[in-house]
Write a structure and sequence with these properties.
three-stranded antiparallel sheet; single chain; 182 residues
């Protein structure tokens, strides 16, 4: 996607430069001469650093990276809705932490929630006599010993009474993993 955006920006920069230099770009990508004296006078340069007739350097064609997430989401694997995996069963998993939430669409062949989430490294934690104790979801850590933070698991808004690895899943179900304190 980044390469597509870079190519699109480069094409746009070249087209604007060609217009300001007295040329136009035809629909097939070739540049031809045209009478653009009035258009060239009214066309602004693509950036403060690139003037009419100059070829843009690589710096002007690069788009800025999206802002880095802060707080709980600083180490998140996904910061926007995403689809992961392959398999006959598709579930939606909403990750809710702080004031942000994303939905992960998980395709899996696993039979329970814990295995499906572990399969694509969406969660990590410790095995205990009660099953998987989830400590991290999507790279977001919850440390109960440090600040009484933990991950609540619910299905369609209702808290589960089972652990992740003892919760069977079926195609089309929706789950929520909510960062909780206290």
């Amino acid at each position: 996607m980044k390469n597509f955006i870079k190519a699109l920006l480069l094409s746009l920069m070249i087209a604007v430069t060609a217009v300001t230099a007295g040329c136009t770009e035809s629909g097939n990508g070739t540049v031809t001469s045209a009478d653009t004296s009035s258009a060239a006078e009214n066309t602004e340069s693509p950036s403060d650093e690139t003037k009419a007739g100059e070829t843009p350097t690589g710096d002007e064609t690069q788009s800025e990276a999206p802002p880095k997430e802060e707080g709980l989401w600083a180490n998140a694997k996904y910061t926007e809705d995403a689809e992961v995996g392959e398999g006959a069963v598709t579930i939606k998993v909403k990750v809710i932490a702080d004031t942000k939430e994303i939905t992960l669409t998980v395709h899996t062949g696993k039979e329970n929630l814990g295995a499906a989430l572990l399969e694509y490294e969406l969660v990590s934690g410790d095995e205990s006599e009660y099953g998987l104790y989830i400590k991290s979801v999507n790279g977001i850590q919850a440390d109960y010993d440090k600040d009484q933070a933990w991950w609540a698991i619910s299905k369609d808004g209702e808290m589960l009474m089972t652990g992740a690895d003892s919760t069977p899943i079926a195609d089309g179900e929706s789950y929520e993993l909510t960062y909780t304190k206290g």
